[in-house]
Write a structure and sequence with these properties.
The chain is α/β, with parallel strands linked by helices and about 260 residues long. It contains 7 helices and 6 strands; from the N terminus they run βααβαβαβααββα. The protein binds 3-methylbut-3-enyl trihydrogen diphosphate (2 copies) and magnesium ion.
């Protein structure tokens, strides 16, 4: 059972949460955290305030995952394409990320959360790369939840990088062409070791993938909510999970795989 949720008039808690919330849980939830700019606009605030407010939604979502017992959470925090945003917004996002990496380390350890990052890490400022390395190292033994942040991430570039690694192995003779399978590709993606996401949540109503986990989402269930990311709270996450539990996943077959 999940712990009682404090009263919140803006996001009222349902009277009868599904009894079976703990069964048929997605093992890996991926989230496209979108709508920060629109949220800020709705509050007559600069866009960066939307990003700042979104940090609390990350904390609430982590709490929900931990309470429900979902072992993998992947958050799309900054895409490779997001580098093309105005310089001031990008610098603010990097500052926010840097602060987050410092503030959250203690919480991650307290809550038994292992931290990792996928994406072109080398594009990030050196100071942030160091903080990522530190957080990864200091949470490596944590077992309850794997939190993966997608930073400077592009699904297409992930495939380009995988092709390069595989081609290098062919070139140096450690891999033969006939031995290339789906597993070969999986083993050379940034997400090696992570199961494919069962469930994708996108906030702010946009019906697109935006270059996220292109290979890994071949059979992911997709859920889009109009809620803007800074308003997203534990109850919204639970609503999404309940929707997932009603889905029938068929993987191309006529009934559920046994
Ligand atoms: C998501 O919110 C955060 C990032 C992409 C970094 P946006 O900043 O995209 O917010 P909208 O889509 O403009 O409202
Ligand atoms: C996707 O949101 C990337 C992140 C949430 C980090 P965007 O706001 O960048 O995506 P588009 O431009 O609406 O597709
Ligand atoms: Mg957006």
């Amino acid at each position: 059972m999940i712990a009682p949720i404090p009263a919140d008039t803006k996001h009222p808690v349902k009277k009868n949460p599904a009894e079976n919330l703990s069964t048929n849980l997605p093992q890996h939830v991926a989230i496209i955290m979108d709508g920060n700019g629109r949220w800020a606009k709705s509050q007559h605030l600069p866009r960066i305030e939307g990003h700042r407010a979104g940090v609390e939604s990350i904390r609430d979502t982590l709490r929900a995952c931990n309470e429900l017992g979902i072992p993998y959470l992947t958050l799309y925090a900054f895409s490779n394409e997001n580098w093309q945003r105005p310089k001031d917004e990008v610098s603010f996002l990097m500052r926010l990320l840097s602060e987050y990496l410092d503030q959250e380390l203690k919480e991650l350890n307290k809550n038994n959360i292992r931290f990792q990052v996928i994406g072109r890490k080398d594009m990030l400022p050196a100071e942030i790369q160091k903080k990522i390395e530190r957080n990864v190292k200091e949470t490596v033994g944590n077992k309850k939840l794997v939190l993966t942040l997608a930073l400077s991430y592009s699904g297409r570039l992930e495939l380009v990088d995988a092709v390069r690694k595989i081609a290098q192995k062919i070139k140096d003779g450690s891999l033969e062409l006939k031995d290339i399978t789906e597993s070969t590709i999986e083993e050379n993606l940034y997400t090696v070791g992570l199961p494919d996401p069962d469930f994708l949540i996108r906030t702010s109503g946009e019906m697109r993938i935006s270059n996220f986990l292109l290979w890994q989402m071949s059979y992911t269930e997709i859920y889009v909510t109009d809620v803007l990311w800074p308003d997203f709270r534990k109850q919204h996450f639970i609503d999404a999970i309940e929707a997932y539990q009603k889905r029938e996943r068929r993987f191309g077959r006529t009934n559920l795989p046994q």
